[in-house]
Amino acid sequence: MSFPLPAAGLLFLTGSAFAADGGTFDTTGSVVQMLLGLGLVIGLLYASLHVLRRIGGGNAQGAALLKVRGATAVGPRERVVLVEVGDKILVLGVAPGRVNALHTLDTTDLPSPGNSSPMPGGKDFQTWLKQTLERRTR
Fold it and tell me: Which of left, alpha, beta for 101 (phi over 0: left; psi -120 to 50: alpha)?
């Protein structure tokens, strides 16, 4: 009797070899044991992830004090970041291994994120992008 899959043929041969020695080879029990072990490992990973999230989530008060208002790249590894702390906004220069305070502003000096000012020429970005893409496809 030939099996189309070599693995199934090997499994059949090893099962008959164990039976000839007088021992029994139970493939179903081995597969069930493997799946239960896999389930146990996945369950332990899920439980440890849940515990780590609970422990790491205790710093919610510190995150409420600081709020990143915006950031922009000024070089390959340098950024300028606006950070809101209370009623002040800090303009920070961030580089690898270094953070410098560039300027301090009041929150009233910057427009709120909800107020979007139109681009020069009376166009908003969505309209400008749509027109640019239409020109490229022609």
Answer: beta
The rounded distance, in Å, linking the Cα atoms of 32 and 26 is 10
Output the DSSP codes for 75-124. Answer: SSS-EEEEEEETTEEEEEEEETTEEEEEEEEEGGGS--TT-PPPPTTS--
Handedness of CA 36, 37, 40, 46 (dihedral sign): negative
Around 108, how many Cα atoms within 13 Å sit in the side-chain half-sphere? Answer: 0
Strands 88-95 and 66-73: unpaired
The answer to whether the Cα torsion of 37, 42, 47, 49 is positive or negative is: positive
Lowest mean pLDDT across 25-34, 62-71, 110-119: 110-119
Structure tokens at 4: 């189309």
Q: Return the ∠ at Cα 118 (arms to 113 and 123), rounded to 5°.
A: 145
Q: What is the pTM of this model?
A: 0.41
Burial of 21 (0-12, 13-18, 19+ CB in 10 A): exposed
